[in-house]
Write a structure and sequence with these properties.
The protein is an alpha/beta fold and about 240 residues long. The protein has one domain: NAD(P)-binding Rossmann-like Domain (Rossmann fold, 3-Layer(aba) Sandwich). It has helices at about 15-25, 35-45, 60-65, 95-120, 140-160, 190-200, 210-225, and strands at about 5-10, 30-35, 50-55, 75-80, 125-130, 170-175, 230-235. A 7-stranded parallel beta sheet has the order 3-2-1-4-5-6-7, sandwiched between helices. Helix 1 (about 15-25) packs across helix 7 and helix 3 (about 60-65) runs parallel beside helix 4 (about 95-120). It is globular and about 50 Å long. Bound molecules: NADP nicotinamide-adenine-dinucleotide phosphate (NAP).
């Protein structure tokens, strides 16, 4: 039997890396994409999966990435790559707007657009990784939150648009998760420790998620054949508070 194919964007780190590993363990033919050749090739080697270099901010890279699946088709697209940074709105530059919206919102949408023929071929599914920040605000994160809110919104519309083609579209929305993204937020060590304490105090399960716990839900969503247009929160109970 031919293996199912999956593409995980931002697969060299954190949730993407854990997701690629779990799909690989489940017998999928896995490709991870990322913007940095060295990081992506190192991760692909460690996982024994296929690497592809593509920056989510580059329409040309996304076209090339999708072209590589034109012949084989694609069973599962995991739009996981994103940037996150704490910036007070007063300090946000037009470049910040472009970065957040081009990488976190336009990138996933363009990739889906380019990937449609490959997804149609397999009646595949799309999993967009959003965040619980869409429903639970956080100071200094307006651009990130807006970009993720857009992901939730387009996913529901696309679920309806693509259902007649047999393509499912869903969202996994993690809460606070222990990944390298925390070191990229632009916070000092003390600020980061304070944010972590504050976040943990609000989580009913009293701890951050491990990337593997988000990966479990992404793989489950890929295999949940009657679920489309859904947003699954994976947040240790935050949305129940
Ligand atoms: N960790 C959390 O608390 C949390 C909470 C809610 C939602 N999320 C979401 O979960 C997803 C995974 O995040 P993570 O926590 O695993 O963070 P991470 O470890 O920083 O992983 C993010 C991945 O995205 C890649 N990426 C960033 N910009 C890119 C670009 N322009 N082109 C291609 N790849 C790019 C990164 O590549 P580089 O290594 O080259 O930077 C990295 O592989 C993201 O969508 C994030 O918003 C995370």
């Amino acid at each position: 039997m031919t293996k199912k194919t999956v593409l995980v964007t931002g697969g060299n780190s954190g949730i993407g890396f854990a997701t690629a590993r779990l799909f690989h363990e489940r017998g999928y033919n896995v490709t991870i994409s990322g913007r940095d050749r060295e990081r992506i090739e190192q991760a692909a080697g460690a996982l024994s999966v296929n690497p592809f270099i593509a920056d989510m901010g580059s329409p040309e890279d996304l076209k090339n990435l999708a072209s590589s699946f034109r012949e084989t088709g694609l069973d599962v697209l995991v739009n996981n790559a994103a940037i996150a940074q704490f910036i007070p709105l007063a300090a946000c530059t037009p470049q910040d707007y472009d970065s957040f919206f081009n990488i976190n919102l336009r990138g996933p949408l363009l990739l889906i657009q380019e990937m449609l023929p490959a997804l149609e071929k397999k009646r595949g599914c799309i999993i967009n990784v959003s965040s619980i920040i869409v429903n639970n605000g956080l100071p200094n994160a307006a651009l990130y939150a807006a970009s993720k809110g857009g992901v939730d919104a387009f996913s529901k519309s696309l679920a309806l648009e693509l259902a007649p083609k047999g393509i499912r579209v869903n969202v996994v929305a993690p809460g606070a998760t222990e990944t390298p993204i925390l070191d990229k937020l632009g916070l000092t060590a003390d600020q980061l420790a304070a944010v972590k304490r504050q976040q943990e105090a609000m989580i009913p399960l009293q701890r951050f998620a491990r990337p593997e716990e988000i990966a479990q839900v992404i793989v489950a969503q890929a295999e949940a054949s009657y679920v489309t247009g859904a947003v699954w929160n994976v947040d240790g109970g935050v949305n129940a508070t």
